[in-house]
Structure formats: C-alpha cells, structure tokens
Design a protein that fits this description.
Number of helices: 5
Number of strands: 15
Largest sheet: 9 strands, mixed
Order of helices and strands: HEEHEEEEHEEEEEHEEEHE
Distance between the termini: 42 Å
Shape: globular
C-alpha cells in the first residue's frame, strides 16, 4: 500500500469513527404466516392420546421453532376450519392464531394481540383424532411484529416493546404502523405478518423492509 492509499484509509476510518458515514442497516427478513396452533402438552395429549409427541416436519426461522405434521380442526358457533397446522414445541398455554376472514367463518370475534397475550381472548373448540377440547381463551389474530436480538435493537435504534412504522418497497408497497419490536437474545431477526396483510401489499420473503420511527 502506497503512502496515499494509507492516508486515504486512515481518513476513512476517522470519518467512520466520527459518525459521518451512516452505518448500513441489514435488510430485515420477512416471515409470512397462515393460521396455526400452539398447544400445551396436556392439551396435546387430550387431542392425540397419552404421551403423544409432536412430529417435526421442518424448522422455522425462529430458533427451536418448527412446523409439525399434525393438524387439527378448529370450530366456532358458525363453522369450522380443518387441517390447521400445529407449531412446536409445546407451550405452557395453548393458543390459536387465525386470520381476520376466519372470524366470519367461525362466528367469533378475535382480538389483535401479540403471541402469549391471552388475557380476555375468546375460546375455541379444537378437534383432534383422539378427542376434543374447548379452550376458554387463546383465540387471537397476530399483531404484526419484528423479532430481533438485543444487538439488532441497538443497531436499529429501537427497544423491546417499542411500536414503530415500517416501509414496504414495491409496486403495491406502502407503510404499516403499529409494528411491535420484540427484542431478546432468543430470537432471530425477522418481520412477522400474516397472509392477509402480506397479500394486501404483495409482500414476499424477498421484500425490502425499512423501519421508520
């Protein structure tokens, strides 16, 4: 390296350290989900039999999460939806995440909630090959959110629980508000949205997502 190259390298490093060059932020991957079910071990055994274990079909993008071979029928006062996929592993409480249009078919009004926020949610009947169960709570429409590590949160300048707006590129792109940041060290960076909202803006796993404060 010549003396001018060395000088240029030093100047560039000084500019970076001084904050004059904005750090490039990585693209946020997109995860699009359909209706699905999370089960407790007790409810799993009621539906499939004592000692039953879920059968993993494929890993999902979030660490330790996977899609299962098993499906259930969910039923409400007006109708039922068959072959709703179960996701593993089992949880402490069962919950069912549906789409807005499913509410009309089932005859139940489900609130928009983050996964795990089950207080005050309506119930739903689950029908399996060995039994059925009525959940007193746990039916919801998933609120759009972004999973990330704490380091990702620092890089993006956001905090766990913060609500942000995102910009979606593309011919039918636009912005979505009320996107919740879920930052912890057990997650992988990914924007989660259901199929209805994704279809409205032609959102795909290859779409470019930008966080707007």
């Amino acid at each position: 390296m010549g003396k001018y190259d060395a000088l240029a390298a030093l100047l560039l490093e000084a500019i970076k350290e001084g904050g004059y060059l904005k750090k490039e932020v990585d693209t946020i991957p997109v995860g699009i989900s359909n209706r699905h079910i999370h089960l407790s071990q007790g409810d799993l055994e009621t539906l499939f039999g004592p000692g039953y274990q879920l059968t993993k079909v494929k890993d999902l993008s979030q660490p330790m999460q996977y899609a299962c071979k098993e499906t259930l029928t969910i039923a409400g006062p007006k109708g039922a939806i068959e072959k709703v996929r179960i996701l593993g592993p089992t949880r402490s409480e069962s919950q069912v995440e549906i789409l807005q249009a499913d509410c009309y078919k089932l005859g139940i009004t489900a609130p928009v909630r983050l996964s795990g926020d089950l207080q005050g949610t309506p119930g739903i009947t689950l029908i399996g090959p060995k039994g059925s169960i009525y959940l007193n709570k746990g039916l919801l429409i998933a609120q759009r959110h972004i999973h990330m590590t704490l380091e990702d949160a620092r890089n993006f300048g956001v905090t766990d629980g913060e609500i942000v707006t995102i910009q979606i590129d593309g011919l039918r792109g636009g912005s979505y508000s009320n996107v919740v940041i879920r930052a912890n060290n057990t997650s992988a960076l990914e924007f989660h949205i259901d199929t209805e909202e994704a279809n409205a803006m032609h959102l795909a796993p290859t779409s470019t997502i930008t966080i707007k404060k």
